[in-house]
Amino acid sequence: MPWPRRNDPASIRARQELTGIEGLPASVDLEPFVDAAEALTGVAVIPVSVCPIRIELGSYELDGDGTVVERGRGEDDVLVPLAHTEGSLTLSMTRGAKAAGVVKTYVLADRITRASCFVCADAAQAITLSGWLEGELPGLRDWLRSQDDPKLSKRAVLREVKTHVVGPMCHVLWAWTTGDAVGPNMMTRNAYALNMGYVMERAPVKPERAILEANMGGDKKPSYEYFHSGHGKTVLAEAFLAGDQIRRVLHTSAEDLEALSWAGTHGAVASGMQSVAFTPASAIAAAFAATGQDLGMVGTSSMAHGTARRVEGGLHATIRLPGLEVGTVGGGTTLPSARDWLASIGCAGSGKVYRLAQIVAAAALCLEISASAAMATAGSENFFRAHHERGGLRT
């Protein structure tokens, strides 16, 4: 029997019969999901728990040149939804949030990039093209604005052009802001138009080949480029851990936490790791799954740079997420459960993306604090016990 490819009810039923899955769970109406994925056959159910975190958030908007500007700050108690099957994750994050008291968050930048490449006849032509492109930004912007093409996005605004020449190749990072959407689809359409309709037609040298995505940035992968210059939202979260909270809640000391940070940072450097942190991916994947984010973007979004420093009365802890790819409109955020969980934390719809980015960063820091505390105990005994008692280990 041919594999049914449409998403009409008959095709969905046929795929369910072929796979032996009768639409798990049977009570779920699949109609709201037909536009989210091709070959829809059923749904996967993941348990969602919540973690209470007190967060001091900034209120942000973009100015005319795309710079993130803070307009005010305020505190809020947020019940962060976490969809996962990882034993002790929610309890651990909750412990970190209790020790932190208030987590302060900041949005530092907002850029998402498409890494194109133009292959030229030789290095001289690639260098010529690079110089021309970096001086052509106003013309590129004007051309995009002038296009009357419904396939192009007006919400994806070109902000910068960065080039890198290697051999006969001129790599180009097109940097965009995309409003409340993550924006990969809209910036991809616009980048393709720039490549084929502007560069290939107007450049002073004629490239032999245009490649829409040539991997210089590291889309959906950790990379130095994104670790350093950002991709999506660049967010910082910080907390002060008082000495008595460290002892009473985390069962360790500021001295032991700082020692762990020192050892962990050198371990990360020695391994060439594109992160200086312990477990940010767990927090980010759980928050992403609950709120309808693209799970493939956990790879880039979980790149992190954590710090810990003893100060008077306790420990100052931070985490920087340079490539947090989140959206509050479009994609999986339109699905029923994701929309509900986004609404529960005040992040559904337009004007909420910076709030969501800060909440995810706060959650990641709280998990880092607790996991680090467990690892900082003598012999990392608490970390072992957490995995032994809650990880299903019985033999």
Report what the structure shows.
With 395 residues, this protein is α+β, with helices and mostly antiparallel strands. It is built from 13 helices and 9 strands. Strands 1, 2, 3, 4, 5, 6, 7, 8 and 9 form a 9-stranded mixed beta sheet that branches. β4 and β5 form a beta hairpin. α2 packs across α12, α8 crosses α12 and α9 packs antiparallel against α12. The chain is globular and about 65 Å long. The two termini are 45 Å apart. 43% of the residues are buried. The model has no long low-confidence stretch (mean pLDDT 92).
Give the DSSP E fraction (strand runs of 2 or more residues).
25-35%
Order of helices and strands: HEEHEHHEEHEHEHHHHEEHHH
As a whole number of angstroms, the C-alpha radius of gyration is: 23 Å
Count of β-strands: 9
Residue share in helices? 25-40%
Give the helix/strand class: alpha+beta
Biggest sheet character? 9 strands, mixed
Oligomer: single chain
Number of helices: 13
Distance between the termini: 45 Å
Shape: globular
Q: Unreliable stretches, pLDDT < 50, 5 or more residues?
A: none
**Overall average pLDDT:** 92
